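This part of the workshop introduces the protein records we will be handling. The question running through the whole workshop is how a given chain folds. To make this concrete, we reproduce a full record directly below:
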Amino acid sequence: MANLDAIYRILTIKNIIKLKNEYTMYLKIKLIALLLFLAVTSCKNDFKLPYQKVIERRAIERKNNENGQSVLSGRITIEKFVTGYNSYHIRSSFLPTITLKLKNIGNKDLTEHITISAVFLDNKTGEQLDTDYQTISSSTQRFVSSATMQIQIRSSVGWHYLSEQDVSVKLYINDKYLKTVKIDNREFDGIIR
């Protein structure tokens, strides 16, 4: 009989420990659920996991790049660009030209070497007409925070008169492709007003 009482006590103690462990686990799960609920509601529906924020930022940058807005990691934007043929009087030629109005939207001056280069292509013949580049910033040429600047990039190859030229320009920033723009068939002085 004593053995049965001892076995009964051991089983009861094991059940109590088991129940205690199960209840502890239940309380832990309930606490985690409560903390998650508080985290979500305190963010006012802006709760996003870190990878979701990265995906959204990349989508915005991709969309801006497609629209010609964001140029360099959210630090420089193209506010406007205008294309046409600049009349170059010394050689009496009309040269394919693109002028970009850039803005430094970063909170710091840019002093790293940043160059926008252009490749001018005759779409009718497939011929590469010329390349040109402009340095936006470098260690000796600062692009001030919140400032805008206009840069003009033009081909040195042109025509003596304007007709139905079909020219496009491929733009690169620090040798990374940015976008391709068709040059408008009109005379253009190279300044954005």
